[in-house]
Amino acid sequence: MSQRPPKGEGYVEVRELRRDEILPALHLIWDVFIRDVAPSYTPEGIEEFQKTIRYETVLSMYMNREITMFGAFEGTELIGTISVKNVGHIFLFYVKGACQGRGAGRQLFTAVWRHCTQMLKVSRITVNAAPEAVPKYIRMGMYPVMPEQTIKGMRYTPMEMIVSPCADYQYAASMDRKQTDNTLKIVLIGAAVLAAAFVTVFLISAVVFFIVSDRGDRMEDYRRYDNYGGGYYDDYYGGYYNDGGAEEEQGGLDAIPAAIEENLSYELEEETYSFTDYEKQNTYIEFYVQYPRLNGMEEKTQDKVNQILEEYAMKSVEEIYLHPSDEMKETVIGAQYPMLASYVQYKVCFASEDFLSVAYDDYNYRGSMEEFHENFRAVNINLEDGTVYQVKDVIDISDSFVEMWLRRIREDAAGEPIFSELSRRDIKRTFAGDSLGGIYVVNFFFAGNGFNIGYDLNYDENDPNDLGYVWLTASFKKNEVEGYMVDKEMWE
């Protein structure tokens, strides 16, 4: 195994992208597309491409493991990206113009080649190459299989490469240095395959050992601990795992057991706020916010409740775009890659005739690519008059309750010293609404498993108290908190 060159200026590292890196990758793709590809597309083609790279579309494929995305980094800067579908089809392959010619494109293609041969086990790699990219793909060992096509204003040439799990991609790099024709390329490919056949077992074993050991060493770097059930997301593998390491089907909001009464007199509907600003070339602006709406109630109360539900969902959009602070404006102006974005999902955790509890998960970029945050919010509403409950309205924040909560939260966190930096007095302050500088934002909600209370956590970067949790709550059955209930009528 050859050693990597020392990291420094000009060093390019290629690895799989994490979930929070998808949006910066799409921003890069759009910038390069507008400069290099859009001139050969019709307006219809540009519009179709915009639909292709919508965040919710790409994120859905990523989370469903339909695609794998790779990024090329110089230090912490993303300079290129490539994606591949599970059938071995390459798409969204772009490298920043100023960074082209440094080998990033070659390394990205090599990463996909290895993924296709060793992981996907496909027999060929395909791509629909933009007109200006055809010569580059030929140099990488691919060849056209059909004339140029134009569909919905998008011009491309279908290309492919026959691959083998026992071959090594080094041949493609050597062919790039030699100006050989396609016939010689095919001969060299065949020779490489035949030669490698004698050492198939050795190569596959070595590759598997390298992948397993390399991923094992870096696994912790990709774990993002979940707020619910003591498990964690693994952004490398894209799955949710519990403490025992067994993969679970659901995590985050999906793991909250909902309790919705049957035959409600009102209907629960879904509303979506969607906005993308393609006109501002220097700032990436995109919002996709989902939230519930009630229909069938008394009109005045219904309007009040629906306004509250929308306000909680749109909190980030309000703060970073509709009514930004001077500090937010300065962040955008000073950012190398300005970005304003919010993607919100929700879960109706509890719904009865006179009470509603809703939780929101908000992924947002607050001014730049570097300012990525995930925030959790919950709202609890009296449906008779639209009253929004605070913690103090439902629970007596006593010393004994704080002790019980802290003991439960640490049990759920597998015994980790969660919140060891907080005194009991600090916890009581946060439950009363003081977030201590925005770090500990209290939230509570009702669900199928009872009463849940905890924090949306916003530690500063490199804070030693940050154990990797995005949000964290402790759950209590009704009988466990009977002695602490404030509004008995609401609890009933």
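(ticket continues) Second input and output from the same batch:
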Amino acid sequence: MITIELPTEIEESLGKLAEENGMSTEKCIEQAILQYIEDCHDVRLAEAALTEFYASGEKAIPIEEVIKEYGLAR
């Protein structure tokens, strides 16, 4: 178990958010932490993919070319 002290305004905002979403403050905190962990993992994967792309020597295709080639609306 982890115990933390939050500034009053954050605690109040968290309580309102939890209430608006029909959950306990603890569940809201748990979901926020899980989302943060997933986001951090995604960032690491994206950074690794970008590093791999740069190392490959491939050229990036500008988004304008992709839009034009596939007739996409922007």
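Agent notes: The CA atoms of residues 33 and 49 lie 24 Å apart. Residues 8-70 form one domain. Closing as not reproducible unless the customer responds.
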